TrEMBL record:
Lineage: Bacteria, Bacillati, Actinomycetota, Actinomycetes, Kitasatosporales
Protein's UniProt name: MoaD/ThiS family protein
Source organism of this protein record: Streptomyces edwardsiae
One Pfam family cited in the UniProt record for this chain: ThiS
InterPro entries, sorted: Beta-grasp_dom_sf (IPR012675), Mopterin_synth/thiamin_S_b (IPR016155), ThiS/MoaD-like (IPR003749)
Length: 84
């Protein structure tokens, strides 16, 4: 398991109630499952619309279970932003 920091932006930050928090997970899918367990409700709904960066690289359409996390890495949770 990798120790990573999950950073929330905009609506995700508001729904989580924190800007960032640590998680342990091997893949992005595992990290997001844990996020949903820790923050049921609004954040779970916001995550459906989010895109993700893992260590600065866009995840895009890749299945989240195939995106490996590195120890000390960062997952950025990016909701859609208004104004382009």
């Amino acid at each position: 398991m990798a120790k990573v920091t999950v950073r929330y932006w905009a609506a995700a930050k508001a729904a989580a109630g924190v800007a960032e928090e640590p998680y342990e997970a091997a893949t992005l899918a595992e990290a997001l499952d844990t996020v949903r367990g820790r923050h049921p409700g609004e954040l779970t709904r916001v995550l459906l619309r989010c895109s993700f960066l893992v260590d600065g690289d866009p995840v895009g359409k890749r299945p989240h279970e195939t995106v490996r996390l590195a120890d000390g890495g960062t997952v950025e949770v990016l909701p859609p932003f208004a104004g382009g």
